[in-house]
Amino acid sequence: MRPAHPTEQAVGMEHYVSETDGVGGRLREDDDHFRVRELERFDTEPIDAPTDAYPHLVVRATLRGWDTNDFASRLSDALGCSRERVNWAGTKDKYAVTTQLFSVYGADPADLPEIDGVEIEVVGRAGRSLEFGDLAGNAFELVVSDPERPENAVAITDELRAFGGLEDGESTVSIGVPNFFGQQRFGSRRPVTHEVGLAIARGDWEGAVMAYLGNPTDAEPESTQEARAFVEETRDWQAALERVPNRLRYERSMIHALAERDGDPGPEAFRAALERVPSNLQRLFVHAAQSYAFNLMLSERLERGLPFDRPVAGDVVCFSDTDAPAGLELPDTDRLQRVDERRLDSVTRHCERGRAFVTAPLVGTETELADGEQGEIERDVLDDLGLSPADFDLPGEFGSTGTRRAMLLRTDLRLEAEPLSLAFALPKGSYATVVCREYLKVDPVALG
């Protein structure tokens, strides 16, 4: 196996599964070079449906250079309504062209604004708002700029097909990669989110706060590095407020909380500081710790040479979602089965046909670890991290019951040579960068 980039190893992605040198280059040279389209899974009624029964207007927006949250705020301002009335199924990147659904409570199509860089299409009405996760997945069209070895893309594709692929199609080939959590999960330029979550799970509230406030990195402006170093060295919260830039609003919220309780260095003061940040960020801390452990488990399975596309005795598999859109493999982690020797052959056939998937845990209080060699991997990783499922019995937004996640990410790939481009679809929660990293093999910063 080929060692991954050191920045990826720091978040548990320790290997590439393809040995061929990467094509090099970078993504997102232009917004048009990174296109994302939601694979929708949300039922709507005709636009003339009664608004008392279907009060939510659903639109499909194509955004160029817009962050999802910023667009939602701009849309609500233009409609003269609360930002809370605008909802969507998945957050997308700013430096891209993205197509996604939004719902707006009480809106009329005639009131929809014209916004630079945005195309809005009315889809229909719905009886409820969109919720996060109301999509099946995303389709990507990505251009690699300035590749150094574009000819290597074919050999890499052959290796990925061998790792986990199915049969070739007329214009596509099926490939497989480990279903790692990508760099964005941990912070693309400052990957510390999982360190915060690990400290929380260990009950080290002070360590969690300092992991977030400190840890200066070269990727940040010099003033930010100096401010983080000052916080680490002095823990003078009042003075820190004068040094930490206003743009670091979450850090400042934590520091304000600590300044208010200056002289109280106990764990409750640090926990209160963490609770000052938005609830979704509180959850993200713990989710990142779970994701880091998951990545380590996949890396260890690779080290041991165990298959990803079929089970071994002791594995836990999930089955496919029968309502998935055509051409998209969508694991249903609510349907789990432990594989013993008696079931091994039948479950293997299901995996070969894309009807079942080998899983690893996102550890939480209700996690039941696998048996056999995969069970050894899961227990060893948790032991090395000083964690157990019971550690995720945490207060408020920090707690997690856990789930399982498919180890193999398999997709149909369309590869174009000029310009070098990749087109594929992934289920929600999977990262385009874990496909692209195998092809480019560069610093993750170049992947966006």
From TrEMBL:
This is Probable tRNA pseudouridine synthase D. The active site is at D93 (nucleophile). It holds the Pfam family TruD. InterPro entries: PsdUridine_synth_cat_dom_sf (IPR020103), PsdUridine_synth_TruD (IPR001656), PsdUridine_synth_TruD_CS (IPR020119), PsdUridine_synth_TruD_insert (IPR011760), TruD_catalytic (IPR042214). The gene is truD. The lineage of its organism: Archaea, Methanobacteriati, Methanobacteriota, Stenosarchaea group, Halobacteria. GO terms for molecular function: RNA binding; tRNA pseudouridine(13) synthase activity. It catalyses: uridine(13) in tRNA = pseudouridine(13) in tRNA. Belongs to the pseudouridine synthase TruD family. GO terms for biological process: tRNA pseudouridine synthesis. The keyword Isomerase applies. Could be responsible for synthesis of pseudouridine from uracil-13 in transfer RNAs. The keyword tRNA processing applies. Residues 176-409 form the TRUD domain. Its EC number is 5.4.99.27. It comes from the Archaea. HAMAP family: TruD (MF_01082). It comes from Natrinema salaciae. Keywords: Isomerase, tRNA processing. It is an enzyme of class 5 (isomerase).
